[in-house]
Design brief:
alpha+beta, 13 strands, 22% strand
Length: 335
């Protein structure tokens, strides 16, 4: 099947065909498996195939960690088959169990890090009970509150401008504000026109700095669930590296085998970066900058040409030693 398909683009590029790439990494960020799906594949439909492909691996323990886009009852059933364990971030929609029961459940948060507090909430009884961990990040809550206050100030100025110019009804500016992803959620329609919806703002404040994770693994404490989901940042970091530094996109290939080869080479490059970072205990950017100081100089004279390598700095020598690579010879070639 040709992987180039038009689908939902998270980058706003609905005009271009795309592919969907899946990646499995260890807790240390090493890629161990990747998948290439057609560009019109929905994330939530990839779980069954990923689990099936990993079934033959000799894994001591496998915990499927997914974000809110993977949540569905069918996925929960597929992951739980054969005693499978999962850890999922739950979407927070108005009127569902998470917002109505879990977030409103009283209880004291336990601090497990400077930027992370957690409390456990159990819904139901017996084997059908559902365990949730409500996680709260005070730093993120302050950031979200400040960002929302800034948008409210912008919106108040915009509404005052509309009132001064007597632009009511369904003018272009009013329609643009109501349909805006930035401002629309903070507005409501009144007899006098648009107004700021203070009730909607108060409802959004409930979610500041919070996320909820759910797991069917009873051996995990609430702290384990919170920290386990935070490890998903390793996957996000891998994606940023592949899309940014390794320049996985754009893909200029058309033939399916060339597209698969392009992704495979990118994943291998990511693996090489992770191996280097693990060996040097530093980021690839810092390692690369140190090694770039080793340069090759061409010295020309009437008697010939000398290709000489500059002497490695102390930092570069330490990098080579950590990577178990012999320093290059001082004289590379004589012509």
């Amino acid at each position: 099947m040709a992987p180039r398909k038009r689908g939902y683009s998270k980058n706003g590029r609905g005009d271009a065909p795309q592919i969907v790439v899946g990646l499995a990494v260890t807790r240390d960020g090493f890629p161990v498996r990747h998948w290439v799906f057609p560009g019109n594949t929905v994330d939530v439909t990839t779980v069954a195939q990923v689990k099936e492909d990993l079934k033959g691996w000799q894994l001591t323990r496998c915990l499927f960690v997914g974000d809110a886009g993977m949540v569905s009852q069918a996925n929960f059933q597929a992951l739980a088959k054969g005693g499978g364990k999962y850890l999922m971030a739950m979407p927070m929609r108005r009127g569902d169990e998470v917002t109505e029961t879990v977030l409103s459940r009283p209880g004291r948060y336990r601090k497990i890090a400077d930027n992370l507090e957690v409390k456990e909430v159990v819904v139901g009884d017996g084997e059908r009970r559902r365990r949730y961990a409500v996680c709260f990040n005070p730093q993120e809550a302050r950031r979200q509150r400040a960002h929302r206050d800034e948008r409210i100030r912008e919106l108040e100025a915009e509404l005052a401008c509309l009132a001064d110019q007597d632009e009511g009804g369904h003018s272009k500016r009013v329609c643009a504000l109501r349909s805006s992803a930035r401002y629309g959620r903070f507005l409501k329609e009144t007899k006098r026109g648009l107004a700021i919806d203070r009730q909607a703002i108060a409802e959004l404040e409930r979610f500041d700095g919070k996320f909820v994770v759910h797991s069917n693994d009873d051996t995990l404490t609430a702290e384990d669930m919170a920290l386990g989901y935070k490890q998903q940042q390793r996957v996000e970091e891998a994606w940023r590296t592949m899309k940014g530094g390794l320049r996985m996109r754009p893909v200029f290939h058309w033939a399916p085998h060339r597209i698969h080869a392009h992704i495979a080479i990118t994943v291998l490059s990511l693996l090489l970066e992770r191996v280097i970072e693990h060996a040097c205990q530093d980021t690839w950017r810092n390692v690369r900058d140190d090694l770039k100081r080793i340069q090759l100089a061409q010295l020309s004279s009437p008697n010939g040409t000398v290709w000489q390598v500059t002497e490695p700095t102390a930092e570069a020598a330490n990098r080579l030693k950590a990577l178990k690579i012999k320093p290059p010879p001082a004289i590379l070639r004589l012509d």
